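Sequence design from tokenized structure. All designs in this work follow the same two-part layout: the structure record, then the generated sequence. An example of the structure record is given first.
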């Protein structure tokens, strides 16, 4: 499921669309939600420390923005990368808080 989610995100990241992005705020929300979802799938697929999940997905976000710099139909944006990182951090914070709130079982 993780790889299907990553393939979908990469498809949207690199495919040209005829409709330009009108609202940049909406674009940032899409980045947050996409990477929150991807982080959730990554966390479910692999039982590794949150630090490594974050590092891998932070690099993926940076690579996506780097590739978009060279695509004529896209623009690389520092703020898109920050929005993607925000989605990663939000999921990991919720995961951490939910595990500490549950307590021992």
């Amino acid at each position: 499921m993780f790889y299907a989610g990553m393939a979908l995100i990469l498809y949207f990241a690199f495919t040209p669309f005829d409709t330009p992005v009108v609202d940049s705020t909406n674009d940032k929300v899409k980045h947050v939600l996409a990477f929150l979802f991807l982080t959730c799938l990554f966390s479910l697929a692999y039982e590794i420390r949150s630090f490594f999940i974050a590092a891998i997905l932070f690099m993926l976000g940076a690579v996506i923005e780097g590739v978009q710099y060279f695509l004529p139909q896209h623009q690389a944006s520092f703020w898109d990368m920050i929005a993607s990182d925000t989605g990663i951090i939000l999921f990991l914070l919720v995961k951490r808080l939910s595990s500490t709130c549950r307590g021992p079982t």
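The two ends are 28 Å apart (CA to CA). We note this feature because it recurs in several other targets discussed in the main text.
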